Amino acid sequence: MSRNLKALIGPSILNADLSQLFEESQKLLNNGADYLHLDVMDGHFVPNLTFGHPIVKCLRSKIKDAFFETHMMVSKPEQWIAPMADAGVNQYTFHIEPVTNVEDVCRKIRESGMKVGVAIKPGTPVSEVEKYISISDMVLIMTVEPGFGGQKFMENQMAKVQYLRENYPLLNIEVDGGVGPSTISCCANAGANMIVSGTAVIGAADQASTIKLLRDTVQTAIDK
Ligand SMILES: O=C(CO)[C@H](O)[C@H](O)COP(=O)(O)O
Ligand SMILES: [Fe+2]
Questions:
Q1: Residue 89 backbone zone (phi > 0: left; psi -120 to 50: alpha; other: beta)
Q2: Which residues, if any, are the signal sequence (predicted)?
């Protein structure tokens, strides 16, 4: 795999104690998280609700320097670009499934100063997202049906990751859903370099060593 790639671990705070969002986030960063993955759900694209830009803005006011990725599980990603940029988001990752003009959304995200992530659900073919690689900074391959934390990792999604890694050696490929110590080798060997892990990290007795294990496993595969 290309040595120019970097293993990055972005814990998801979805299943954390959200009444303590700042403390939980700071703890993850103190324990070695490379970035924070913030799951935004609108109750329409997915059957669940979380939080939006006002909460992200509050978190940003207390955490100045961490990289924030918002995973936008929403039906109208275009609607939230400006508010999320204003809230201090660094990367805006959105699902392409409900969007008719993906190029337009990518351009608007970039113009607002954020990095662009494009995401697909397990049922969406990788060819659907491949079209947008040249105008994106990262592709997210979901390894659960989006909507809830704590679900079982879908190993059959690794074929998509493998295909992308073989064809795009320098692409940032993120996996999200059911990823933890027992499934990380699978992700690392397929070629993912950006790892979202929610339940496995939040619930770990030792967060720092869990984050380190995830990162070391992925970096070892990259350096092979
Ligand atoms: O996008 C998501 C769900 O839609 C979450 O990021 C994901 O589920 C992470 O949590 P876990 O590691 O517990 O699966
Ligand atoms: Fe997510």
A1: beta
A2: none
Alpha carbon distance 179, 103 (integer Å): 29
pTM (2 decimals)? 0.98
Residue nearest to atom 4 of ligand 1 (CA): 146
Is there an atom of ligand 1 within 6 Å of 196 CB?
A: yes
Catalytic positions? 39, 176
CATH of the domain at 82: 3.20.20.70
Nearest to 43 by CA among 13, 77, 73: 73
The response to whether residue 117 sits with its C-beta less than 6 Å from ligand 1 reads no
User: What's the gap between Cα 60 and its chain centre?
Assistant: 18
Residue 70: CB within 6 Å of ligand 1?
Answer: no
Helix (H, G, I), strand (E, B) or coil at 115: strand
Return residues with CB closer than 5 A to ligand 2 (ion): 39, 71, 176
Write down the ipTM of this complex.
Answer: 0.98
Strands (E), the chain: 8-11, 36-41, 68-73, 91-95, 115-120, 138-142, 172-176, 194-197
Ligand nearest to the CA of 178: 1
Name the one residue in this structure whose structure tokens are 């969002």. Answer: 21
Note whether residue 2 is domain-resident. Answer: no
130 and 161 Cβ atoms separated by less than 8 Å: no
CB distance 8 to ligand 1 below 6 Å: no
Q: Look at residue 27 and tell me if it is in a domain.
A: yes
Residue 3 belongs to a domain:
no
The pLDDT tens digits for 129-171 are 999 999 999 999 999 999 999 999 999 999 999 999 999 999 9
